[in-house]
Amino acid sequence: MVKSQRKWNLAYSVFMFMFFLTLLQFSVKIALIFALGTAIGYTLQKSRFCFTAAFRDPMITGITEITRSVILLIGLSIIGFAIVYQISQNTHYSLTLFILPFGLATIVGGILFGIGMVLAGGCISGILMRIGEGFEMQMLALVGVLIGAFAGKNTRSFWQGTFGEWPGIFIPALLGWIPTLIIELLILAGLWKLAKWWQHKQLGE
């Protein structure tokens, strides 16, 4: 069984590499995107990283390791974005910001999406990952995702008109970058400590 699996793994690796080389003949950009997507997918699958688990596991099992990983990821993303943005302001490269409006529909949609993630057993990345592992329930969930995305796209104006929207807020424009970074990182540090305390309370570790 193990030898057979190794043969399949080797064959799959060779196929992926050959496919990457084929893409290089058409577009370097597409080939690099393919390689990056493969690397991210491999990392997600091996680490069992899932945004759904970050919210689900503390309530069901008391384990907050993935929760703390997500908090760390957000913190690194905040710092990385701030650095990239500041560099873009001092170079010829222009970074476009998309400050999107939000409203009651955002809150309702977030709640519905959260319920859907728990029922489906994963977020979008988790669903795709588990489809690759052969899980049938996630295949059905993907159909629901596609139907919902299509319906949402074609009824967006209705929901926006029904619930209304508030203008988006770019906090660094109000407080400045340094105060914003300090506040956000302090909040994340507090959430990380809270998650650590919760696991210790539930499991004693």
From TrEMBL:
InterPro entries named among the record's database cross-references: Sulf_transp_TsuA/YedE
UniProt entry keywords in alphabetical sequence: Membrane, Transmembrane, Transmembrane helix
Transmembrane segments: 12-45, 66-87, 99-128, 171-192
Alphabetized Pfam families for the sequence: Sulf_transp (PF04143)
Name of the featured protein: Uncharacterized protein
Native species: Desulfitobacterium metallireducens DSM 15288
